[in-house]
Structure formats: structure tokens, C-alpha cells
Design goal:
The chain is mainly α. It contains 16 helices and no strands. α1 runs parallel beside α10, α9 runs antiparallel to α10 and α9 packs parallel to α13. The longest helix has 37 residues.
Length: 450
Amino acid sequence: MNRDLTIGKPETVLWKFCLPLFGSIIFQQLYNIADSWVAGRFIGENALAAVGNSYEITLIFIAFAFGCNIGCSVIVSQLFGAKEYEDMKTAVYTTMISSAILCAILMLLGIIFCNGLLNLIHTPKEILSDSKLYLDIYIAGLPFLFFYNIATGIFSALGDSTTPFVFLAISSTSNILVDILFVAGFHMGVAGVAWATFLCQSISCILAIAVVLKRLTGIHTDKKARIYSGKILKQITVIAIPSILQQSFISIGNIIIQSVINDCGVGVTAGYSAAIKLNNLVITSFTTLGNGISNYTAQNIGAGILSRVKSGFKAGVKMVWLLCIPIVLLYLIASKLLITFFISVPSKLALSSGVHFLYIVAPFYFVVSVKLVADGILRGAKLMKNFMIATFTDLILRVVLAEILSKQIGYIGIWCAWPIGWTIAMILSLIFYHNGPWKNNIENISQSQQ
């Protein structure tokens, strides 16, 4: 069901729109969590380290898929808010065609260079072959990753966050069952983990695209929409490229950090692999909520209602902080239990390194969540330069500090790089948000909420 985000009380609108998005990303992350859990529980610590090690490289591909998602989503949101339905459909078709070409190029590059990347990040010899195997299968499934992300971006742009939630709930639950079947039942090892993800994600992708196309046919236009537009592609690219660069450089930064972690040994790598899954569950969830706020911002700017942006920011911060409270408490109180969820019999080093990561990083979720809400508004308003400055500041600080502090206090120093980078980047994002085009808008907010 399509939803107009330009009417209704902003806080109520965002809660109704963003909570299904939050649920969706929880199930999306279950794909990766299930992979790590099955690998650690049914194969061993080395398998968990191999899947976690490969995951950092897969984030590069996810960055491009995310960029296509957000680029399409913001433009479609603005066109939907402005009721320019013909151009809106053209934006969808243009994204699909362009993304297919981009995906093919990335698959070729992945086949050629992934083995070299694994060696570049100092992958331990005992997990190298399993890491390579996992990546090969993952790359084969890139088309499904790309087109599923495009579909979810379109759903969000149309104000529908429920449909992708339903798809992900079913496919993620299925993924866990198929993971266990392939690994514990068929004894396929790390390959079973990868093939389970491939199978379930492909099914959810095909269904999502089919529903998107059906949904578009139900939106009436006076003329048939064009299949491709270079002008609209340029508009999408203006949003997509900074988002791709953001996620790509974050991934590259994480790969550099992974190489520093790998030098600490398999135990620390395994502990980090477990802890980073838990961390990414939270960060990706808040990033997705930020994307929802981007859609909200874009629709309201498209409709010319700037005053609702301020109300959306306040509502967004309130929402993420309410979600932070139980997550932070869980990670601090049950850290050992959560790490052993991934590794049935962890080594002392694997357990301590994973627990220390959660102790150091979790309290700062209150900080990074505010940054991601502000970033969502900056993206929705097409203020990509400011968005990029805040993002790259965080990344550069984390990479440099991880390298420096690891030499001083070991892996604890690497973990400390996260909260420092987040805090400084949050300050920058807030400054950019407060100086946005809505700063001096005098429109009566109470009237816009009617």
C-alpha cells in the first residue's frame, strides 16, 4: 500500500513508516547472523572466522546495491510527493537498467580480484580457502542482491514499508532453516552457508520485483512512461554516487581494520566476527531508519513543506533513542552469552575480544544513531556534500586510530576507534542539519500536521 508522508503528525507518520523498516532490516541481518551462527556452531571457530573475514569484502558489493537503493528511493520519493507519476515510473525503469549493467561489471571484477583482496587483508592461511569459497558463491548471487535492494527502495519511496518486511520475514526465517539443513544435514560446510543465502535471497528478490512492477501498473499516468531517461539517471546518480562512495569507503576502511585485526590472530578475528555481526545489526538498522527519514524528507520537500523536516528530525531522534535503550542494556549485560551464541566453545581470546568490543562500542549507539538520523535528512534534501564530509571524517578517524592505537594497547585500541569517530562525525552532521534550508522557514508547523 502506497502512503503519502506529507500529511499527518510527523512523529506518528515516522513511527508507522519506519518500524516496519526496522523489522525488515532485522530480518535482513538475520541472513548474515544465521551464516555466522551456523558456521560457528556446526562447523567451528575457523569457519566463523572465514565467513566473518569474507563479510568485510561483501560489504563493498552491498555498498553499490545500497547506493542504487537510496538513489532511486530519494528521486522516486520526490516525484511521488510532487505527483509526477510518469517521471516516477521512468526513474524506476532507468534504475533497473543501469543497475543491471553495474552489477555485471562488479561480478566480473569480483571474480578477478577477490582472491587478491583476501591475501591483501592478511587472511590467515587456515581460513583462506573457505573465505574464497564463500565469496565465489556470494558473487554469483549479486543480481539478486541488487534488484532486491532496488525493490525495497521503491517500496519505501511509495511510503510502503510493510511489504518488504513481509518478504524478509519469510525469506530470513527460511534462510536459517536451509542453513542448518545444508550444513548440519548435508554436511556442505561453508559452501552450504553461502548456497542457503543465495537460494533464499533469489526467491525474495524475484517476488519483490514482481510486486513492484504490479504496483507501478496500478498508478495511472496520462502518457506511457519512458523506459529510460538520461536526465533522470543524472538525478539518481547525484544521490547514488555519494552513497556508494560512503558505503564503499566505509567498507574499504573496514577491510583495512580487518587486516589489522587479522594480525592479532584467529582468536581475535573470530571474536570480532561475532561481535561485529551484533554491531552491524544495530548500525544497519539505524541506517535503514535513516533511509526512511530520507524518504520522509524527500516527499515533504517535493511537496514544498519544509517545516515538517524539523519535526521529522525530533521524532527520528526520539525513535532511535527509544530503540537504543534495550539494545545497549542487552549488549552490556548479556555480552558473553551473545558471543557464545556464535561460538559454542570459544577460545579465551575469542571470547574476551568479542566481549570487550561490545563493552566499548555499545554505549555510543546513542551517539551514532543521532548522526544517522541527521544524515538521513541531509540525503533526502540532496545535501550530499555535507553528508560526505561527516561520513568520511568518521571513516578516516576510525582507520587511522585503529592502526595507531593497536600498536599501543592491542585490539582494545582498535575497538576504541569506533566511539571516537562516531562522536566527532555526529557533531559535524548536527551542524550541517541545523544549517539546512529549513533553518529560517517560518511556516506554521501545526498547520502542516493537520
